[in-house]
Automatic annotation (TrEMBL):
Record-linked Pfam families: CPT (PF07931)
Lineage of source species: Bacteria, Bacillati, Bacillota, Bacilli, Bacillales
Top-rank taxon, per record: Bacteria
InterPro entries in alphabetical order: CPT, P-loop_NTPase
Name this polypeptide is given: Chloramphenicol phosphotransferase
Length: 202
């Protein structure tokens, strides 16, 4: 019987360090690891529906929300498909429910992964570090009056709700390699993941 591929979902805000952890996993973990994260899905999304599943919290584009829900469902169906084929999957994503109305996407995605070896990892980073990284990477930082932009604050508040994880890491104190190795240790030593089951039962 073919072994099901392991699934690692890295959940956190933009610039929290998820992509670097995913890259380390791909380059260093045993076996084939496919990255089906938010950036890759956004590249496949037509301009008229951008930013797709990267839509930030705040309910700014209710017209896109039905499409975003379907994109998330399709992404998780793809994740499950790769796992059934015996291929490991790592996903960097930012789940939130800060839409114009509650879409409960995370729970719907958890339903898709029922029965799969799927680990939900919380990737944390203090907002002050996020701001420094935004300035370095995108040259986008504070508002003209020196405040943190509202969407950045909303990301920080909403992305870790309900906060149920199999493991949590902080990229302000750990390197991407250290975070990835903690994830590897969690998978190797157990116990089996329970976060998605808990979310399904909310």
């Amino acid at each position: 019987m073919k072994k099901t591929g392991t699934i690692i979902i890295l959940n956190g805000t933009p610039r929290s360090g998820k992509s670097s952890i995913a890259k380390f996993i791909q380059d260093n973990f045993k076996g084939v690891w496919m990255n089906l994260g938010v950036d890759h899905l956004m590249k496949m999304t037509p301009d008229a529906y951008q930013p797709g599943i990267g839509l930030r919290p705040g309910g700014e584009r209710p017209d896109l929300e039905p499409v975003i829900e379907r994109l998330y469902i399709a992404m998780y169906e793809s994740i499950a498909s790769f796992s059934r084929a015996g291929i490991n999957v790592v996903v960097d994503v930012g789940h939130h429910d800060g839409y114009s109305t509650s879409l409960d996407i995370l729970k719907k995605c958890a339903m898709i992964l029922e029965g799969y070896p799927a680990y939900l990892i919380g990737v944390h980073c203090p907002i002050e570090i996020i701001m420094k990284r935004r300035l370095t990477t995108w040259n986008i930082g504070y508002t003209p009056d020196g405040n943190i932009p509202k969407p950045v604050k909303l990301w920080q508040k909403l992305v870790h709700e309900p906060g149920i994880y199999d493991l949590e890491v902080d990229t302000s104190i750990l390197s991407s390699a250290e975070c990835a190795n903690l994830i590897r240790k969690r998978i190797k030593l157990g116990p089996m993941p329970t976060s998605f089951e808990e979310i399904r039962n909310l």
